[in-house]
Each structure stands twice: as C-alpha cells, then as structure tokens.
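Hey, resending since the last one bounced:
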Amino acid sequence: MEIYSEKLSPKYTIIEWLLTLLVNATAIVLATKIFKGFYVESFVYAIITSIVIMILNRLLKPTLKLLALPITVISLGILYPIVDTIILKIASLIMGKHLIVEGWVIPFFVSIFISIVTVILDALITKSIIRGEK
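The structure tokens again:
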C-alpha cells in the first residue's frame, strides 16, 4: 500500500545523493576542526568516510537500533546517539589511520554535532537546490 510517494526523476535523486554526500563530508571536516580525539585526514577521506557511514547506516543501523531499544526506552531517548557513536567507531575501524575516533565520550558528542550540522546544511543547501531545479 502506497500512501504518498514523491516521484523524482533519477537525475534529482543522484544530485540529491551527491549533495548529501558533500554535506556529510563537510560536517565531518567541521567536527575534525572542533573536537579533539576525532580526526579525518583530508576532505577526500571525509567523502570516503561519508560513503562508509551511509553504507553502515543502511546495513547495520536498523539492527543496532533494535538492540539498543531497551536502553533507549529506559533513558527516554537520551542515549539514542550511542547507535551513531557505534557507527562512527566501526567506520574508524574500516578507514584505519585516515579516520581516528578516540574513546567513547568524544564520538558521542561528535555524532550529535554531525547530525545537527547535517540537518542544518541539508535544509539550507540540498533542499533549496533540489527545490530550485524543479
């Protein structure tokens, strides 16, 4: 049953995906500049890290959210960013020396920061460009 579906041509979805990728990479680079204990080597590796995180979000995040559900319910959602922190740590393992994520406290705040910056930049850049092209 399909309730609502906005029909977009493939051109818009590819452009939107590329813009989202660049917005995520920008948020990762900003997090590198602000937080100690979180480091990405260059913007190119930030783009690769963004791709890795996108893939991990598609493959692992639903399972991690399900496993973290009891903690999330008990904490009233405050500990939900732990799932994003785990994704960051796994991305760090995949990226090796190109992405350094130290400890668990800093990545917790980095994941919150990246989420907020991504939402803001996505609203300001990606959505306005996609709306402007239609």
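The helical segments are 10-34, 43-59, 61-67, 69-74, 81-95, 105-133.

Sorry for the duplicate.
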